[in-house]
Every structure is written in C-alpha cells, then in structure tokens.
C-alpha cells in the first residue's frame, strides 16, 4: 500500500508531465496495439466479405502452406543474404564517418560535410530509384559510360541477378549512412574531453586516441545499434526493393516483405500474407533476444 501511495503522490506532483504522455500512449494504443487483433487472420481462411468474425478458422494451415511453399527457401535466402550484406558492409560506415568527423577541427567545413551526407536521407526511395535507374542505365547511364570508355560491355544492373544485390546495398548505403552516423556523433560528443587532453599530454597520436578513447567510449552505442539491426534482419528493405526490382531478378531480390506485398495486395491472399508477416515478426523478436544475450556474454554490454 505504501508503494502505491508513493506512486499516486508522484503522479499528483508531476501531473503535467503525465498528461503529456497521454497523446503518445493513445497513438500507440490505436495504431500499434489495436491492429494486433488482426493477427487472427493468419489462423483463418479470411473472407473479406465475412470479416474476421465470420471467416473459417483453419489453425496453422497457412503456416504449413508457407513452410511447404516452393518460394519459402528462396525468399528466406534472399532476405538473410541482403540483410547480412547490409550489416557487414554498411553498419561500420556510419561509425567510421562519425569518428572521422570528430577529428575535423574546422567547424564550417565539418557542418558542410554533415549537411551533404545527411541530405540523401530526406529523399524518398521513389526519387532515389529514379535517380539510380538513370545513373545505371545500360544506354545512357554514367556508370555504363565509364565501363564503355574502358572497353567493357554495358551492364543492365537492374535485370542481372549477379549485380542486383550489390545495387541494393550500394543504394541503401548512399541514402542512409550519413544519417545513421548522427547517433554515433552524439555518443562521441558525450565523451569526456579531459580524456583526450590527458592522451595528448601522454603523447598519444590522433589515431591512437581514436582506437583507445573514441571507439571504446561509444562501444555501448555500437552494441545497441547492432542488436537493433539484428532484430530487423528479416526486414531487408521492402520499400527499396519494391521500387528497384522486377520479375527478372526475383531469384535474388525477392524478400519476405515483397512476397507479402505480392501475395496480400496483388493476389489478395490475406490470411497467407498475414501468416508470413507474423512469422517475420516472431523471428525478429527472438533475434533481438538472442542478439542481446550473445552481446552480454561476449562483450558484457547489452540493452537489458
């Protein structure tokens, strides 16, 4: 009872702050938690005219259909490979950008660089898709122009399964690497400046300061971001791929998100696409838990 009384007393003292929480909580309730009810569609043979209440209950039939589908192995392989490539090749780039920008002394130049590398984030994937379609065009694109200048044959990057995943990784890196560096820049800004002063007095070079002060100082942030990235490994960039791929590269570019889109909206397989989406979410949840435990065991740092 005493704990409850203290809690109520705290609410009375800070009622204005708790009132500010209400819009956010209402938003979460309406747009995040209420739609969870729709997950029952995954266990039904959903009929849009009968609704959730009148549709036939089929249990795990939709999941069995997914696991026995000829497409399951392909979309899982593509999803995991594309996400793995993005983690391996793109995750370190924002860290490198943040560390290098921290070494820039001229604020005007530093802010100019930050503005330039942040800008692509604010462009929609529609704009970026159109931009890279022109850049990589086999007839008029600047990249194929350079290849031709060196005597090579034009490459149709968006219709060649050998290059499509590389295009996805490169375009995602160009768009998001600069923006993703913000959180690491903020983490570096929170480091104690006296550590750098002491290192300089001891004769440490700027490179040694990077490896012995900056990187260890932001290691917790790096681990946090890596765990969150691992949790989203089955979300390989659905919007990006939808705008860049076509049937000729389904073999290497079709992922869970695009498969859900095609089955749910194009083929109107609502129950099946919901089952696929639920499978993706559950796996993502366990990946976050597993990544957190693995990080705690190996590095001693974790989210909780």
TrEMBL record:
The chain crosses the membrane at residues 20-43, 80-101, 122-147, 167-189, 210-230, 270-289. Its main location: membrane. Keywords: Membrane, Transmembrane, Transmembrane helix, Transport. It is a multi-pass membrane protein. One of its GO terms (biological process) is transmembrane transport. It is found in: Cell membrane; Membrane. GO terms for cellular component: plasma membrane. Residues 76-291 form the ABC transmembrane type-1 domain. SUPFAM superfamilies: MetI-like (SSF161098). Belongs to the binding-protein-dependent transport system permease family. This is Sugar ABC transporter permease. It comes from Cohnella zeiphila.
């Amino acid at each position: 009872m005493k704990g409850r009384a203290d809690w109520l007393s705290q609410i009375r003292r800070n009622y204005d702050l708790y009132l500010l929480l209400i819009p956010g909580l209402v938003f979460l309730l309406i747009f995040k938690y209420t739609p969870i009810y729709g997950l029952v569609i995954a266990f039904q043979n959903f009929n849009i005219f009968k609704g959730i209440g009148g549709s036939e209950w089929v249990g795990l039939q939709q999941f069995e259909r997914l696991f026995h589908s000829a497409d399951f192995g392909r979309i899982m392989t593509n999803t995991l490979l594309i996400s793995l490539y993005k983690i391996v090749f793109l995750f370190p780039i924002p860290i490198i950008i943040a560390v290098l920008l921290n070494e820039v002394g001229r604020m005007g130049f530093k802010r100019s660089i930050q503005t330039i590398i942040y800008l692509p984030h604010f462009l929609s994937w529609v704009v970026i898709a159109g931009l890279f379609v022109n850049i990589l065009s086999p007839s008029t694109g600047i990249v194929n122009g350079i290849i031709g200048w060196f005597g090579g044959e034009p490459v149709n990057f968006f219709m060649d399964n050998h290059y499509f995943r590389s295009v996805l990784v490169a375009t995602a890196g160009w768009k998001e690497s600069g923006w993703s560096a913000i959180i690491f820049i903020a983490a570096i800004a929170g480091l104690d400046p006296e550590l750098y002063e002491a290192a300089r007095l001891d004769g440490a070079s700027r490179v040694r300061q990077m490896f012995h002060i900056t990187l260890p100082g932001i290691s917790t942030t790096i681990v946090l971001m890596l765990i969150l990235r691992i949790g989203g490994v089955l979300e390989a960039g659905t919007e990006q791929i939808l705008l860049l791929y076509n049937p000729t590269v389904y073999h290497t570019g079709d992922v869970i998100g695009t498969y859900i889109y095609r089955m749910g909206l194009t083929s109107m397989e609502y129950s099946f696409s919901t089952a696929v989406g639920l499978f993706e979410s559950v796996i993502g949840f366990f990946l976050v838990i597993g990544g957190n435990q693995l990080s705690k065991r190996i590095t001693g740092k974790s989210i909780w």
